[in-house]
Amino acid sequence: MAPFELAEPGSLPDALALLDAEGARALSGGTALMLMMKAGVLRPKRLVSLRKLGLEGIDTGPAGELRIGGMTTLRALEKSELVKRHWPVLARALRTLSNVRVRNVATVGGNLAHADPHMDLPPLLCALGASVGLASREGVRNIPVEQLGTGYLETSLRHAELITILEVPPLGRRRAAYLKCTTRSADDWPALGVAVVSDFQQDVRIFVSAATDKPTRLKGAEAVLKGKEITPSLIREAADAALAEVHIESDMHGSADYKKQLLRVYLGRAIHEARSAVH
Amino acid sequence: MKRAAQSTETPQVGRSVPRLESWLKVTGRAEYVHNLRLPGMLYGKIFRSTVAHGRIKRIDVSAARRLAGVHSVVTGEDVRKLIAEPYYGPAFHDQPILALDKVRYVGEPVAVVLASDLHVAEEAVHLITAEYEELPAVYDEVEAMTSKAIVHDVLKPAGTFPDLKHMKGRTNTNIALDFHLRRGKAPEAMKTAARVFEHRFRTQQVMHTPLEPLVSVAESTDSSLTINTASQSPSFVRSEIARLLGWPENRVRVRVPFLGGGFGAKLYIKLEALVSVLSLLTKRPVKVSLTMEEQFFTITKHASTFRIKSGVTRDGRIVARECEVWWNGGAYADIGPRVTQKSGFTAPGPYDIEHVAIDSYALYTNLPPAGALRGFGIPQLVWAYESHTDMMARELGIDPVEFRRRNLLRDGRPQATGTVMRDAAIEKVLERLQALMEWRAPMDHGSGTVKKGRGIAIGFKACVSPTTSLAMVNVNADGSCIVYCSTADMGQGSDTAMAQIAGEVLNMAAESVTVVHSDTDVTPYDMATLGSRSLFHMGNAVKLAAEDALKKLNLLRNELQLPAEAPIPEVFRKKYGMQAGNVVGTGSYIPSYKSPDANGLTDNATPFWMVGGSGAEVEVDTETGRVQVRRLVNVADVGTPINPKIVETQLSGAAIMQLGFTLFEKMHFDARGQLRNASFAEYKIPGLLDIPEAMTNEAVVAEQKTGPYGAKGVGETGTFGVSPAIANAIQDAVGVRLTSLPLTAESIWEKLK
């Protein structure tokens, strides 16, 4: 690992100023960053710790939306009574996200900024219609999580821009499920993740991840399902539509053919799970 | 030190004494080489080959040397200045300390950067460049038999093993050892058999993954060398380093504290020759500690191919068996030739078969070296013969347990080598497995997309022979006791077991006995901590040493006219007029052994047999092929347990390790010999959630009459049956037969669709 400078600013403006330099990287939980630095993939000159910016916390906003500070740990989110009560799908997904040691330090903002397509939260947050608040020296902006990931480890985050807050709208009449499938050990990165959020009338959002290079919306499958009675043949039709609209490549988790089969199977299972979910 | 006082009223053996070192370990005070820092110490980081087979044209270390903070950069040519023939290995002197002339696998050490700051050394490694003239390479063990790509120009057997002498000087071959066994007339018997079955099985290359990666530290003077190392074989390290340097053994001191796991990865020489040379060249202490990931390029488990053919009578008796096994040894032989022979001769399995032919080949390939891994080749063999056995039983319409029972190798009957089975509870293990699996009860095979199945498998192993262990037992004037032995406690609990044995002889609580760790200046010779040999060999040596000490104490009592029950402190006070002096008992143990003849036959192949069986209940998702092992039962013959709790945890640990090798662990290489998943994000080992909810680990009631208090080794036995038991259960569930490990969901789905 190459030597680097570690800065621990106490305010957001200071952090943004420190980040606005060649070779500077933000350090949140550091679980992915440290691995990349040890592997020599990333060689930052300066790490800017976000620990002292007061960016952690979980509450609800005026419209009943869940507001999560960017530096909130995954474990805090998993254990939050608020989340368990009103967004139980998030708490459920977090229980099998990596392991408890990682969840204790990894943060929501860091997780989203990393943009590894094998992560569990991005497809689920996309399906839930969540958005993120971004801060840079130019000011603040708000974008849907769906627009954050642009490719493998690539995001639409601009230079020296931070995720300060994540907002998840209330589920309302919608019900949600996230299913993943690992093909090696139980705590492996998934070969496939599928998130389904729907009121099982007109509103349906489905995202697939892990088998694709970023969380990908299955609009064709959504169109098949919209406003229809869920039947086995309808699910088959939706799976056909899904397979026609995503590009899946072979990797060490499995061949493209196998992962297509997983999508076919898990799409159906996720729809069933969402339908029978309390939320 | 926090240790519970324990009365001597209860026997010391057969008691689940909590591990003596557990308090030190959970409070972070146990000694490991990883924590060792010496004044003036340099860290070495290794620059590795990027080609699988090539002549070294040029190594440019100038930029690395120029980096601020770098002490020096060392290549194979620098090593050659110190040692003319810097090649090491237990079976062949084939492995250079750093690559010389050629590289033979991707990841082979080529140069080392030394610096006081580990991170500077690591940074400088990136500045080294090397040019190779690439040579044709071979990766597959069967192709290596006839390949034009030759890994070693000339074979150089170490001379330690008589059966390797004929390999000396051979050229134009990748065969490091061919072992052949002929008993009866297998080809003829095959012709007259009612049914003949032939199958071919494969296992994949995997890694040991000890929690503590390989690490060694050397410090030197002009005339002496001290090596602190995480090694399972300090005595071998000492003699091999002494041989390389042309020094007498008393100038090389090898110290081994606790090991954070070994599983065969830390045997023979790994980093020890390298740190020794680096320390002698720099006149500074040098430490090399591998990262977890570098271990993939250091030592692995043999991939293998096994062709097995059986002739069976109409009533389901196996009369003939042919076994042809190819072991993928990688670029350096390590202990592979021993695996080929010492495990090879059990390839026909624990069955009573009159006509047997075995051909077992150790092959060089351009992959990372393979050596011993918890089972020494046995899991690869059991995987094949127990899958084969099940396939035959199903074809013949005979219940798999009944088919095995009909052919079982019973006590008093000769095994393939001709060695008569003694104290091998094969039958008991099978019967107990059947009972625990409730085999006679009907099985619910599931419904919908979840199908259920069950399977069993049983295997055996001959302990490697002949090997030697020596021990000393010191009784101090206050009556306290110290055991000196070179067995490495790598988590298997050997310290506790040795303390129990010494305590039993001397009527002392095991908790009160101290066990001194390997230090070749202090502790006597031991062959190595490997192959489940230590409890039997070192246990016998410690028992003899303790008995010797007791005899000497009793002689003193006699001489001093003290009663037999006189307390030890009183004996010494009377002898020396104060609390002074001590009594040292010594013990050495080597079992009898007879080398195999030209046909591979011997009537004394091993001092003891290990027997292990597993039963698995699985659920298979018919839409995805995903397998859940719902229940895993492991039954073993371990003789009479010295420490029942440790026996249980050894069995479960071994079975869980083998579960990973069965279901998903695999080193994936591309077409150029590059490892594609050299990280633990992509090479997965079992986690807690992979362990079956229901797991039973049981030792049958048995006795190894030649073992210390009836005991024998247990470290590997839990691995034997796991892979075939699960494969057999998968076939029972969904009718799919897999012949290649790992048993991935995708390979099941491929056959289901």
Biggest β-sheet strands, sense, barrel of chain A:
5 strands, antiparallel
Model regions low in confidence, pLDDT < 50 over at least 5 residues of chain A: none
CATH topology of the largest domain in chain B: Aldehyde Oxidoreductase, domain 4
| Separate helix tally of chain A | 11
Strand content of chain A: 15-25%
Biggest sheet features of chain B: 7 strands, mixed
Any idea what the CATH superfamily of the largest domain in chain B is called? Aldehyde oxidase/xanthine dehydrogenase, molybdopterin binding domain
User: Regarding quaternary structure, how should these chains be classified?
Assistant: heterodimer
Q: Provide the helix percentage of chain B.
A: 25-40%
**CATH architecture heading of the largest domain in chain A:** 2-Layer Sandwich
List SSEs of chain A in N-to-C order. EHEHEEEHHHHHHEEEEEEEEEHHH
Structural class, judged by helices and strands of chain B? Answer: alpha+beta
Strand order of the largest sheet of chain B: 3-7-1-14-11-12-13
- Work out the strand percent of chain B: 15-25%
Instruction: Identify the CATH class of the largest domain in chain A.
Output: Alpha Beta
Tally the helices of chain B. Answer: 17
Radius of gyration of chain B: 26 Å
Sum this structure up briefly.
The complex is a heterodimer of chains A (279) and B (753). Chain A has eleven helices and 14 strands.
Please outline the helices and strands.
The complex is a heterodimer of chains A (279) and B (753).
Chain A: E1 5-7, H1 12-19, E2 24-27, H2 31-38, E3 46-49, E4 58-60, E5 66-69, H3 74-79, H4 81-86, H5 88-95, H6 100-105, H7 108-114, H8 121-128, E6 131-136, E7 139-144, E8 149-151, E9 154-155, E10 162-168, E11 175-181, E12 192-198, E13 204-209, E14 216-217, H9 219-225, H10 232-245, H11 256-276
Parallel strand pairs in A: 1-3, 2-3
Antiparallel strand pairs in A: 4-5, 5-10, 6-7, 6-10, 8-9, 11-12, 12-13, 13-14
Helix pairs in contact in A: 9-10, 10-11
Chain B: H1 22-26, E1 42-48, E2 54-60, H2 62-66, E3 70-75, H3 76-82, E4 87-88, E5 95-96, E6 102-103, E7 109-115, H4 118-125, E8 129-134, E9 175-183, H5 186-192, E10 195-203, E11 215-220, E12 225-229, H6 234-245, E13 252-255, H7 272-282, E14 286-289, E15 300-301, E16 303-312, E17 318-328, H8 336-343, E18 355-363, E19 370-371, H9 378-396, H10 400-407, H11 426-436, E20 446-447, E21 450-462, E22 469-476, E23 481-485, H12 494-506, E24 514-516, H13 534-559, H14 568-576, E25 582-589, E26 609-621, E27 627-637, H15 644-663, E28 694-699, H16 722-734, H17 745-752
Parallel strand pairs in B: 1-14, 12-13, 15-19, 17-18, 23-24, 27-28
Antiparallel strand pairs in B: 1-7, 2-6, 2-8, 3-7, 4-5, 9-18, 10-16, 11-12, 11-14, 16-17, 20-21, 21-26, 22-23, 22-25, 26-27
Helix pairs in contact in B: 9-16, 12-13
